[in-house]
Amino acid sequence: MIIRSKAPLRLGLAGGGTDVAPFSDLYGGAILNATISMYAKAAIQPRTDGKIVLHALDKNEQYEFQSGPLLSIDGKLDLIKGVYNRLVKDYIFKPLSFTLYTYVDAPPGSGLGTSSTLVVAILGAFVEWLNLPLGEYDIAHLACDIERGDLKMAGGKQDQYAATFGGVNFMEFFKDDKVIVNPLRIRDKYLDELAHNLILYHTETSRLSSVIIEEQQKNVMSGNVRSLEAMNKLKEQAVMMKNALLTGTLDKIGEILDFGWKFKKNMAVGISNPRLDEIYETAIRFGASGGKVSGAGGGGFMFFYCPGMTRSAVIEGLRKFGGQTKRYEFTGKGLSTWKI
Question: Is 159 one of the catalytic residues?
Fold first, then answer.
């Protein structure tokens, strides 16, 4: 028997960073994101020899050891181990023996929510295998708790909920880990036009998002006025983006992205840098009306809104930076699991 799962990566279109505590606890956060046809995938093959084998196919890493109730968190595929440890502790109450394969369609540090989406995919595979009584909110909340609580990884909450629910969602974040996911019914022609006009561009760089996020958290705790103003403006941006998508006023998308990009750079040091600024300015010069860096910032993917017939010109203008434009479509489906 093989148990498989996949969960979609996401584009954070507006409000990014307001899902990170303590800002979300103190002031409430709002984010608009949409899942795309790039995935984190997991597959489990049960074993009978008392061993656990973990194989990250995209990283070409493999580890084998005797099964037990607690796997050591030692920097070697800790996301998988964190999921296993939590499930054994809270749901299974006994060691398991299995081989687990994982693969992610984008590299770590890309800004598309790869780590959190992978946690959701791994959780989904175990839920399918063991028939655990966990719904969508349960899985997303548990994924957050494993990353932020058990593994002490800095970050927000949007990625786990986007991966679990899928589609275009306006998400609200409150204190005590309360999250409300509001699915948006966007007309197909609006989504098709958005996907056509929104270029996803990999800068061929990566970054450690935790460093930027920790700086952002410190700014909130210290009451940094500039940073707090930026985060509140990004909450406004999420509402602006929601209204534009629902009403089909897509010509405003670039302007809304540009509004957010200007404020996002004030949240923490390292969100942008001279290379990213040059890429952004070049895209604007060749016809894009706005854009942003995906995720926490500092590198990875950027995306740009290219209205009318400007898409090809922007792609050509970005060619000199040596990055790659990634094809994708928006997807309305979140976490999927099945057995073979």
Answer: yes
